[in-house]
């Protein structure tokens, strides 16, 4: 297998990591919504933590995207 | 009349090159005023005009002043909630950071293509977001060491850690502390770059579909165009969220430095 083909396959595999990040982000927002519906009055106070959790989950998915970009355009 | 389907090049939009074709020569030095620098100047201009419109200090604010007060109040509340009263002296920095990132992100999404111009997202380069992240991290370090001296290192050893675990916990906490500027800069950079690559690829589908005949117009172009509208709305939301997350994490890191949990 030549290097170019291997890079493209690697980039495609890295995209699976991005899909798993989608699960993570959905988990964060899903838990927030579920508990917000149980206790709406307390929900607004926790919005800051919601976005912190989203940022952390999203970052790891974006790292997988960075790996794909490195394989495609840098290496 | 159908043109050949062109290869979609999503990375050309991030190219940095000197404006007007060549570098300026000022006092014997070659200064490159790039498209990135020009869009930073435009961001500064938009921010300046926005704030200027809100400075009239009417007792009952008009719409523009209410908008400016909305942003300043939002950041001020966030600093107050995350840091407390000592947060007040860092609010100007965090507000400038938040507004610069927000306006730079949004200007990259502006449809100036209808006028034949090309928008450029300043924050889609790791050099720019990295400098902003290093700025925040440097302020955190300076504040931490100024207030606490070497006692700042107690940040890495939580209360109640058993004695035999202290070396390992210290190393792990130190590593996760040192990775903060990378994660701050990388998060904003990749969010913006990924969004714009997606937009460019979808736009390529629209154009290639248009060029390939009536059937592909119905099957490829129209759904891709509708998807582009939805993704544009999502990207505008991501612009705002990423600016907010950058400012929020900066305020949390400042809280760590000031209060050492």
UniProtKB/TrEMBL annotation, chain A:
Origin: domain of life: Bacteria
Function: F(1)F(0) ATP synthase produces ATP from ADP in the presence of a proton or sodium gradient. F-type ATPases consist of two structural domains, F(1) containing the extramembraneous catalytic core and F(0) containing the membrane proton channel, linked together by a central stalk and a peripheral stalk. During catalysis, ATP synthesis in the catalytic domain of F(1) is coupled via a rotary mechanism of the central stalk subunits to proton translocation.
Encoding gene per record: atpE
Transmembrane domains' residue ranges: 6-29, 50-74
Lineage: Bacteria, Pseudomonadati, Pseudomonadota, Alphaproteobacteria, Sphingomonadales
UniProt entry keywords in alphabetical sequence: ATP synthesis, Cell inner membrane, Cell membrane, CF(0), Hydrogen ion transport, Ion transport, Lipid-binding, Membrane, Transmembrane, Transmembrane helix, Transport
Oligomer and partners: F-type ATPases have 2 components, F(1) - the catalytic core - and F(0) - the membrane proton channel. F(1) has five subunits: alpha(3), beta(3), gamma(1), delta(1), epsilon(1). F(0) has three main subunits: a(1), b(2) and c(10-14). The alpha and beta chains form an alternating ring which encloses part of the gamma chain. F(1) is attached to F(0) by a central stalk formed by the gamma and epsilon chains, while a peripheral stalk is formed by the delta and b chains.
GO MF terms held by the record: lipid binding; proton-transporting ATP synthase activity, rotational mechanism
Organism for this UniProt entry: Rhizorhabdus wittichii (strain DSM 6014 / CCUG 31198 / JCM 15750 / NBRC 105917 / EY 4224 / RW1) (Sphingomonas wittichii)
GO cellular component: plasma membrane; proton-transporting ATP synthase complex; proton-transporting two-sector ATPase complex, proton-transporting domain
Name of the protein this chain belongs to: ATP synthase subunit c
NCBIfam families: PRK07558.1
Location within or outside the cell: Cell inner membrane; Membrane
Gene3D superfamilies: F1F0 ATP synthase subunit C
InterPro entries linked to this entry: ATP_synth_F0_csu, ATP_synth_F0_csu_sf, ATPase_proteolipid_c-like_dom, F/V-ATP_Csub_sf
Family: Belongs to the ATPase C chain family.
Domain V-ATPase proteolipid subunit C-like, chain residue ranges per copy: 9-71
Annotated site residue numbers, Reversibly protonated during proton transport: 58
């Amino acid at each position: 297998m030549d290097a170019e083909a291997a890079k493209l396959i690697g980039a495609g595999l890295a995209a699976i990591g991005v899909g798993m990040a989608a699960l993570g982000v959905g988990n964060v927002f899903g838990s927030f919504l579920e508990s917000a519906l149980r206790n709406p009055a307390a929900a607004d106070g926790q919005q800051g933590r919601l976005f912190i959790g989203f940022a952390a989950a999203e970052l790891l998915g974006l790292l997988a995207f960075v790996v794909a970009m490195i394989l495609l355009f840098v290496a | 009349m159908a043109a050949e389907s062109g290869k979609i090049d999503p990375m050309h939009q991030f190219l940095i090159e000197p404006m007007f074709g060549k570098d300026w020569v000022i006092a014997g030095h070659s200064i490159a005023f790039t498209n990135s620098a020009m869009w930073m100047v435009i961001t500064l201009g938009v921010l300046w005009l926005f704030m200027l419109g809100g400075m009239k200090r009417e007792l009952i604010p008009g719409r523009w002043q209410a908008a400016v007060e909305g942003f300043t109040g939002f950041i001020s509340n966030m600093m107050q909630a995350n840091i407390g009263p000592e947060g007040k002296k860092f609010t100007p920095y965090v507000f400038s950071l938040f507004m610069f990132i927000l306006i730079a992100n949004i200007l990259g999404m502006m449809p100036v293509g209808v006028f034949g111009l090309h928008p450029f997202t300043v924050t889609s380069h790791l050099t720019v977001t990295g400098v902003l992240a290093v700025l925040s991290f440097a302020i955190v370090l300076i504040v931490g060491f100024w207030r606490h001296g070497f006692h700042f290192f107690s940040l890495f050893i939580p209360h109640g850690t058993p004695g035999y675990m202290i070396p390992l916990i210290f190393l792990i906490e130190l590593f996760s502390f040192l990775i903060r500027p990378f994660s701050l800069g990388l998060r904003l950079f990749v969010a913006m770059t990924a969004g714009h690559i997606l937009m460019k690829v979808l736009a390529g589908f629209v154009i290639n579909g248009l060029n390939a005949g009536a059937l592909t117009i119905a099957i490829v172009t129209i759904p891709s165009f509708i998807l582009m509208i939805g993704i544009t709305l999502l990207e505008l939301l991501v612009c705002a969220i990423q600016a907010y997350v950058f400012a929020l994490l900066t305020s949390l890191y400042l809280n760590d430095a000031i209060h050492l949990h």
